[in-house]
Amino acid sequence: MRIAEMDWRAVEAWLAHDDRCVLPLGSTEQHAGLSLSVDSILSERVAAEAAAPLGVPVFPVLAYGITPAFAAYPGTVSLRATTFLAVLKDVLRSLYSQGFRRILLCNGHGGNGPGAAAALEFMGDYPDCRARWHDWWRAPRTLAAVNRTDPVASHASWMENFPWTRLPNAPPPPAEGKPMTDLDRLRSLPPDGVRAQLGDGNFGGLYQRPDEEMLRIWDVAVAETRGLIEDGWN
């Protein structure tokens, strides 16, 4: 159940018998010809679909993350790591104060990785709480499904191209894929250099694969996330 579809009384009623919730984490950054909100769209959607049969509340996605490398692409918004971690800890403290004790952090952006350490620090301060970090797209079963489909998968490539991350009026993507970029070199470049190396923003691979393949991967991701919400707390 999305928090946007609940009032405070519904949350209070939930907390009277359960202490679980899900907090999606995303980013606003370039994704080649896909939406700038890919990471936020996917993390919030996988969380909502996974939690729906369980009735577990899903909070609105934290739509800004740590993405300084893409600053030369218009539309990208990057938080300082210190800002992101401060906001994340404030949200966790707020949830804890209301009675949530099992919080799944459903992350959709690799740059938000420092948040996993913040979750561990939070549990050190509040040892009766479980704040579990879940990179949904590279969780074991989901990543295996991606690799079975096409091992050449990367940022802004086919693996993020779902019907709900495409832009309706965007030109069709190139039919041919890109060679994988040199990631080691990319990590050493400032934002202008990153844009010069990447061009449109795809790290490498095909831009799109058939929807039936994507939906199979999606079903695995939803089921894997639901399993963590159900009994991934020990």
Automatic annotation (TrEMBL):
<comment type="similarity">
    <text>Belongs to the creatininase superfamily.</text>
</comment>
<dbReference type="GO" id="GO:0009231">
    <property type="term" value="P:riboflavin biosynthetic process"/>
</dbReference>
<keyword id="KW-0862">Zinc</keyword>
<protein>
    <submittedName>
        <fullName>Creatinine amidohydrolase</fullName>
        <ecNumber>3.5.2.10</ecNumber>
    </submittedName>
</protein>
<dbReference type="Pfam" id="PF02633">
    <property type="entry name" value="Creatininase"/>
</dbReference>
<dbReference type="GO" id="GO:0016811">
    <property type="term" value="F:hydrolase activity, acting on carbon-nitrogen (but not peptide) bonds, in linear amides"/>
</dbReference>
<keyword id="KW-0378">Hydrolase</keyword>
<keyword id="KW-0479">Metal-binding</keyword>
<dbReference type="InterPro" id="IPR024087">
    <property type="entry name" value="Creatininase-like_sf"/>
</dbReference>
<dbReference type="GO" id="GO:0046872">
    <property type="term" value="F:metal ion binding"/>
</dbReference>
<dbReference type="InterPro" id="IPR003785">
    <property type="entry name" value="Creatininase/forma_Hydrolase"/>
</dbReference>
<dbReference type="GO" id="GO:0047789">
    <property type="term" value="F:creatininase activity"/>
</dbReference>
